[in-house]
């Protein structure tokens, strides 16, 4: 009786395992593999601050102009920017990169925008880019947009960035806090232990020379295809 019970338990365990793990598919983890908090500072050109401006209106509706944001929740304005990125909320801190891209105001009735931009990072800690896109409902305290890719130390990154307007001075300056959570990072398993180590593409090249396979955090537990 005891043997039959043991066999039944083993069969049940195998059935449960098959229902949760599909052969050949990568398992998704529900916690971020890397987090970052950065700030970027946007100074909009207003016809008088050309020397300090980091953003400019390049498209405006018929009732607007390119030196001041239009009425009706700025609907129709298109702004391109090249903003400094800092590790804290001080505009005068040493920049670690640039936020480069555009935002456009896309609704008359609600103060909202659409963003498409890259963080171009060049510091002692990180080198590479992170690319972002998504709707920005500006009246919400926090807003989520997608991390849609990356290069360098963020090769093929995927994740979510939470935006929060950290400061706002009329229609000339605003500061955004960006909490980045990456859920798709490139890792390699250490050859001597069951643990994961973040590597940059440069390090990955060295590891490839040593015939240590590079694989995603979603690694399915098998080296068969490497």
TrEMBL record:
Keyword Nucleus: no
Signal peptide feature range: 1-19
Keyword flag Secreted: yes
BP GO terms, sorted: phenylpropanoid biosynthetic process
InterPro entries: Allene_oxi_cyc_Dirigent (IPR044859), Dirigent (IPR004265)
Keywords tagged on the record: Apoplast, Secreted, Signal
Highest taxon in the source lineage: Eukaryota
Matches recorded under Pfam families: Dirigent
Protein's cellular compartments: Secreted, Extracellular space, Apoplast
Job description of the protein: Dirigent proteins impart stereoselectivity on the phenoxy radical-coupling reaction, yielding optically active lignans from two molecules of coniferyl alcohol in the biosynthesis of lignans, flavonolignans, and alkaloids and thus plays a central role in plant secondary metabolism.
Family to which this protein belongs: Belongs to the plant dirigent protein family.
Protein name: Dirigent protein
């Amino acid at each position: 009786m005891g043997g039959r019970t043991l066999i039944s338990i083993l069969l049940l365990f195998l059935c449960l395992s098959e229902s949760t793990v599909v052969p050949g598919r990568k398992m998704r983890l529900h916690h971020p593999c890397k987090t970052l908090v950065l700030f970027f500072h946007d100074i909009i050109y207003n016809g008088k601050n050309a020397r300090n401006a980091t953003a400019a209106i390049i498209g405006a509706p018929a009732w607007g102009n390119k030196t001041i944001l239009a009425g009706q929740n700025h609907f129709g304005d298109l702004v391109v920017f090249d903003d400094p990125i800092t590790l804290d909320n001080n505009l005068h801190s040493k920049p670690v990169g640039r936020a480069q891209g555009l935002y456009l105001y896309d609704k008359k009735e609600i103060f909202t925008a659409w963003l498409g931009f890259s963080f171009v990072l060049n510091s002692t800690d990180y080198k590479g880019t992170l690319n972002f896109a998504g709707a920005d409902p500006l009246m919400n305290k926090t807003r989520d947009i997608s991390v849609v890719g990356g290069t360098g130390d963020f090769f093929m990154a995927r994740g979510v960035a939470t935006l929060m307007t950290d400061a706002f001075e009329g229609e000339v300056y605003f500061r955004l806090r960006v909490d980045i959570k990456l859920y798709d990072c490139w890792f390699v398993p250490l050859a001597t232990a069951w643990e994961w180590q973040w590597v940059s593409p440069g390090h990955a090249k060295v590891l490839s020379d040593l015939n240590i396979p590079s694989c995603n955090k979603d690694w399915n537990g098998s080296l068969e295809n490497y």
